[in-house]
Amino acid sequence: DVKVTQSSRYLVKRTGEKVFLECVQDMDHENMFWYRQDPGLGLRLIYFSYDVKMKEKGDIPEGYSVSREKKERFSLILESASTNQTSMYLCASTVLAYRDRYSNQPQHFGDGTRLSIL
Amino acid sequence: GQQVMQIPQYQHVQEGEDFTTYCNSSTTLSNIQWYKQRPGGHPVFLIQLVKSGEVKKQKRLTFQFGEAKKNSSLHITATQTTDVGTYFCAGRRSGGYQKVTFGIGTKLQVIP
């Protein structure tokens, strides 16, 4: 079974701090994702990485950056945390499929990090 | 950008009643995936639909993809307390073959 591990289940930080959220997957997946989940808004994509050192912005990248130095690890960085970044953060990974015209690979999620910015 | 609307946002049913959640996209989808998130848990992949008009079943769950590939539904027959959770649809977005857009989810409560 795929295992996606997020470093913290709960995290409390202060406004203005630089915050690192870590995600590790053990299945050699090429693609990794960071989402935030908020009530009434579902899951929104922050950043996506399809290879080491490669990244793409998602729908809400402002205030965030990412790092993928190793294939198994994808880090989300809050450059200067603000209270509106209080949320549940979910990491996911998928295997790289051929550029199948119609099909996608299932996303495997970590347990999430509930981040509170005070 | 592509949007995937999902209704209802919340649904309470008596145990044994049926339940349906609907997804609608503003654009044609290549495929649609469904996920279930139990309370306190993370989303777990249930199924993917690819073909126009496709219908797939998993025990009491029936998944349908519309003919125009713009809408989908998940129907649960005779709900049980184990069905409690939030159900998300996720449509493949244009211009990003590995990225999907999630609906906001339908939170299902089953009253014993």
Tell me what the structure shows.
The complex is a heterodimer of chains A (118) and B (112). Chain A is built from no helices and eleven strands. By secondary structure, chain A is an all-beta fold. In chain A, strands 2, 4, 5, 6, 9, 10 and 11 form a seven-stranded mixed beta sheet that branches. Chain A has a four-stranded antiparallel beta sheet with strand order 1-3-8-7, with no helix packed on it. In chain A, β4 and β5 form a beta hairpin. Chain A is globular. The model of chain A has no long low-confidence stretch (mean pLDDT 92). In chain B, β4 (32-37) and β5 (44-49) form a beta hairpin. The N and C termini of chain B lie far apart (41 Å). In chain B, 0% of the residues lie in helices and 54% in strands. Chain B is globular and about 40 Å long. Chain B has 112 residues and is mostly beta strands. Chain B is built from no helices and eleven strands. Chain A binds chain B through residues 31, 33, 35, 40-45, 48, 50, 56, 58-59, 90, 94, 96-97, 99-112, and chain B through 1, 6, 9, 30-31, 33, 35, 41-45, 48, 50, 88, 90, 92, 96-105.
Topology of helices and strands:
The complex is a heterodimer of chains A (118) and B (112).
Chain A: E1 4-6, E2 10-13, E3 19-25, E4 31-38, E5 42-51, E6 54-57, E7 64-70, E8 73-78, E9 87-94, E10 108-109, E11 113-117
Parallel strand pairs in A: 2-11
Antiparallel strand pairs in A: 1-3, 3-8, 4-5, 4-9, 5-6, 7-8, 9-10, 9-11
Chain B: E1 4-7, E2 10-14, E3 19-25, E4 32-37, E5 44-49, E6 55-58, E7 61-65, E8 71-76, E9 85-92, E10 100-102, E11 106-111
Parallel strand pairs in B: 2-11
Antiparallel strand pairs in B: 1-3, 3-8, 4-5, 4-9, 6-7, 7-8, 9-10, 9-11
